[in-house]
Specification:
Helices cover about 50% and strands about 15% of the residues. It is built from 8 helices and 8 strands, in the order H-H-H-H-E-E-E-E-H-E-E-H-E-E-H-H. It has a 5-stranded antiparallel β-sheet with strand order 4-3-2-1-5. Strands 6-8-7 form a 3-stranded antiparallel β-sheet.
Length: about 325
């Protein structure tokens, strides 16, 4: 029983001897915390003046944390003089490696966020496309970037994913180009159509005059001469879509008034008929016709069509051979 009281007495004496150092350590820690807050505030104000508010927020937090860590190390060395700051740093280094392996993805996103804020490839309010996602940047955090899609959804993209993938910043410049292809008939005047389209572009609200719009002949397609209208607008998605709608409506109306054709894609298919005697040697294999020593007897196309309309599509001939409607004749 005496030994227990002796131990308690020694502990109380040791605590009383540590009280001055403990008080000094707490004061030092408080000073470091206060200095960290001042440093955080100063970094934020400097960043705001430079127009980089998000970077100031993150930099201020880091400075505050580092100041607190430094104060903790100094206070610990004051309270326990036998523990040197070097030993503490070594312990923190080993612990940091373990934490790094355990929280690899989190640290990767954190460092990627710092680099994004430093390099600033895009800003809050920009419209970007990354890894199949597109929208307006609402916030850039240390872990992730928040996007608001055009249909009102929120997308949280880890910064590591943004940093390692290609990012399309659609509002990086003051103007953005759009284009649309218009097909006109081969019998129509190309110059007249180009002039009408150009006039429509120049008179459409939202189309910028500098850079100037263009109308180019792009292709002699199967059923039309394709013209490409190109114009510039403000880079915001809403402006791009609104102006494109006005351009297409205006071009359609102008070409209709000038009686310029905008043809549908058309196809003419000519079927190779093999029902005439003059078609060649029927004992040999030919496209759509069976081979053999006794091939089907030749028949006139007119009779075959008449029989088909009378008996119904696909009904057999009187000689037993099936009608091959796809080899009679036709246009599609």
């Amino acid at each position: 029983m005496d030994s227990i009281w002796e131990r308690i007495d020694n502990m109380v004496d040791g605590f009383l001897r540590l009280l001055p150092n403990l008080a000094i350590g707490l004061v030092v820690l408080a000073v470091f915390i206060f200095a960290g807050k001042l440093l955080k505030r100063g970094i934020r104000k400097s960043a705001e003046k430079a127009g980089r508010t998000n970077l100031g927020i993150v930099g201020g937090r880091l400075a505050s944390w580092l100041a607190m860590l430094g104060g903790l190390l100094v206070a610990t060395s004051i309270v326990a003089p036998s523990i040197s700051p070097g030993d503490l740093l070594a312990t923190l280094g080993i612990g940091g490696v373990a934490i790094g392996f355990a929280f690899k993805d989190i640290l990767q996103n954190f460092l990627a966020g710092i680099l994004i804020l430093l390099r600033q490839p895009f800003e809050i309010g920009d419209q970007i496309e990354v890894d199949g996602f597109e929208g307006t940047v609402k916030d850039i955090e240390t872990r992730a970037t928040l996007l608001k899609t055009y249909d009102g959804k929120r997308i949280v993209i880890p910064n590591g994913q943004i940093f390692t993938n290609a990012v399309v910043v659609k509002t990086a410049h003051d103007a953005r180009r759009s284009q649309y292809d218009i097909g006109i008939g081969y019998g129509d005047d190309i110059d007249e159509a180009c002039d009408l389209i150009m006039e429509t572009l120049q008179n459409t609200d939202g189309v910028l005059s500098d850079p100037a719009p263009q109308v180019l002949v792009m292709d002699l397609a199967g059923s039309s001469v394709n013209l490409r209208a190109r114009w510039w607008t403000d880079p915001q998605k809403a402006d791009v879509m609104r102006t494109k709608d006005a351009v297409i409506r205006g071009v359609k109306s102008a070409l209709d008034k000038a009686a310029i054709d905008m043809p549908y894609p058309t196809q003419v298919v000519l079927f190779h008929d093999q029902t005439e005697e003059s078609d060649g040697d029927r004992t040999k294999q030919r496209e759509g016709w069976p081979a053999g020593e006794q091939p089907p007897k030749p028949a006139r196309i007119s009779k075959a069509l008449e029989k088909s309309s009378r008996n119904g599509k696909g009904s057999p001939d009187q000689d037993g051979s099936p009608q091959r409607d796809n080899h009679r004749a036709g246009v599609a």
